[in-house]
Amino acid sequence: DAMVIQNPRYQVTQFGKPVTLSCSQTLNHNVMYWYQQKSSQAPKLLFHYYDKDFNNEADTPDNFQSRRPNTSFCFLDIRSPGLGDAAMYLCATSLRGGGETQYFGPGTRLLVL
Amino acid sequence: GNSVTQMEGPVTLSEEAFLTINCTYTATGYPSLFWYVQYPGEGLQLLLKATKADDKGSNKGFEATYRKETTSFHLEKGSVQVSDSAVYFCALSLPFQETSGSRLTFGEGTQLTVNP
Q: Per-residue DSSP letters for A2-51?
């Protein structure tokens, strides 16, 4: 089945230690998104890629970076995690011209010690 | 700006009860409307969607109708089950823009608990 995959499902890191979360998709969608979600609040968009074009949200901290080496993969890098960055990180994809529906992965829960 | 307002939760029902979760929206242009469901510890799953006025989305016994005149997209189910316990998010998106993608604007989410 076509899907969005996130690895790992759970990630523990130390305060200030860089961490990378990964997302892959078999949907061949040209748009990929990263969201941060805290405590069952609504997800907050961090940034998205349209093909290779990166679009950062204005209020996304510089501590968060992203890479998309190819259509299938997208990475979220947190350069110096703080305690406030502990959250669920959700990857989503959509197809431009495909009805604007976003499909989400299962998420990675990040714990910062 | 665009916004989505959901009924406040949490909502607690007994099994086989009727469910309504209200959702209203404000948007410029012609949004698509969505309901997503999130089970504990999981990502968001698309439950149903509607892309134009008077469309009805339906899935797994859930339904919602895109009402442009009342700017609403209320979620209903005739008989809930314990397995429906989850957080439900109403959302809208507008046509794709390169700087914002198909940006989803979410409601606050409604926690539903169904007791046996």
A: --EEEE-SEEEE-TT--EEEEEEESS--SEEEEEEE-TTPPPEEEEEEET
